Amino acid sequence: MSKQISLSAPVLLITPPFTQLNTPYPATAYLKGFFNTKNIQTVQADFGIEVILALFNQDGLKHLFETIEKKELTLSENATRIIALKDRYIYTIDQVVQFLQGKQNTLAHSICTRKFLPEANRFNQIDDLKWAFGSMGKQDMAKHIATLYLEDLSDLIQETVDEHFGFSRYAEALGRSANQFDELYESLQQPYTYIDEILIQILSKRMEDVQPKLVCSSVPFPGNLYTSLRCGQWIKKHYPSIKVAMGGGFANTELRSLKDKRVFEFYDFITLDDGEAPLEVLINYINGKEKLENLKRCFALTNGEVTYINNSSCADYKQGQVGTPDYSGLLLEEYISAIEVINPMHSLWSDGRWNKLTMAHGCYWGKCTFCDISLDYIKNYEPLTAGILVDRMEELIAATGERGFHFVDEAAPPSLMKALAIEIIKRKLVVSWWANVRFEKSFTQDLCILLRASGCIAVSGGLEVASDRLLELIQKGITIAQVARVSKNFSESGIMVHAYLMYGFPTQTVQETIDSLEMVRQMFETGVLQSAFWHLFTMTAHSPIGLDPAAYKVKKQTEELGTFANNDIQHEDPTGANHELFGYGLKKALFNYMHGTCLDFPLHKWFDFKTPNTTIPKDYIQKAILEPELISSTHYKTIWIGTMPTYQLIQKSKKGNKWEEMQLQFQANNASFNISIDPKQADWFLQILPQLSVDSSNGLTIAEIKASYQAAGLEGFELFWDNKPINTLSKAGLLRV
Predict the structure, then answer these.
(1) pTM of the prediction?
(2) Mean pLDDT of the chain, nearest integer
């Protein structure tokens, strides 16, 4: 590993507009945390939220409307209406933004009257809000209305001053699947757009204040690419001695075959995959302490040619060495919580500020055929320990004041989730957290109760194409029945379940599409699913399907790689349905299912073309969730997360027979549980409970518990332990996990 030599001036880490507006995208915070361990001075900035705040305030809107009026444009009816109401927008904008920042919660009542804010075309699409949010959802309803209000202004901006503007993305169409750099390059030769001007003003001030020697731009999505290039362009013109590096998810997936040398008019370096080691070596190279050939996973322009340099002898850092993410310097109190889509999981994703953490690098499954499993960020699996994770959680709480955590793993490992939950409970840490999962059968009812007790509030996982044939082709390693049972365990424990759904997988037939919808309908009908979203399948270059399309009976529409971005692959599915036809109907049906309506609606009614009847029995999911949960006791430990019971000896009699029973009462947060057992068994049970407590141990195996039972001179362990009294205590905190 390269020895660190500090820069004489700090590194500036930037996230260009736009990612999400409710919380910082974590890449720069991850890097800043790592650089802290190396004593490398860094400053970070999220230009996305800074541009939005500069735009959406009274002065910003006044300037916007003045700019539009000077253009003497021919306007649509919608834009004309917004401009006519400009004073109402200017008058209300500060209050709306403050409300979305959580600073004026009482404003929700005024917003929900629909008399306070001006409304334009976005409100034509609005549904019955009382039906959508319920009588208790006033804050969420107000956030949705306020979001529509901002989106009306966004539409005005697109029509009049900046066609590329988007609330959570910018010029995405230019960046998505840009096989050639020509269109982007031409756009970058044009005068600054209205949003460009705001961005460059912010960048100029930050560069003047920080005077960095290296600027690192994180580009996670296509919607960040154009603004990242604009930043690089300005820096290289006004600060030619300062080096500019780009990395992030877009580079990792799209730019691995980069050849267009014009890109290096905007960047000096482009790094791939984990950024810690490549940037450390790059810093040393800039300082003259490393040779060019020692760079790691880095594109650069050498002798006028695009060159990929990768010193394989330079090892990556282990996850335990990269430090705790550091959010300092970001405007943590200024992020806004918008609710764009009336969807429980999307609301959770965009509402509130979440500290982002990762349980493990890569994916422990790593087999899904649609996924980029050939790339390092998926295939190199390395978990952290629960102790390190909770240490980092405590550090972030102290630094940010926030107790909400979103674990952004591709799929969080169940065993590590269990260890994390136990560690959180052991430390008596009060947090809320959620994660992406695979619907593993190891998510038993007891494990889900444990996760909920530790603060887990939601999980999202891939149900994908709800068809067992296609799930096998995907190599998902799950079945529909298994997903239903696992979702039931999560739901009954109080953990919201969101399913990622896919349509258009290679060879998927019309019948399978309709049957998938029926499976989803039944999962909402039985209450095991609360949230979901349909995605149209996309074939990517680094997935097994993209690498060998013939094996999945699809054809690439072009075999040639572009000189710029190469990831999404246009393809034909000769044996499958016309998948695009189904998108609107699937999404409309799902929207209603999420609100508990139209569950008895015939499936063909969702489509404006003829479809077959489903072949799925109407009780398929109901039967699946009623199947008993089989637990191999040898693979589990029993733990106790509840409080110690109170107890009393009770005299019992029946038909002249008298005996004694010990009655134990267990108190849980919202219920109490009583069991009556033999006094000798009760004495032993009261002694074993402290040994099972997470406060003192990691639990005992069933063999260890049985040995203790027999050592106490008791008989009939299985009859006692597997009988109703003990089995009822899972809700009180006696869990097999």
Answers:
(1) 0.91
(2) 91
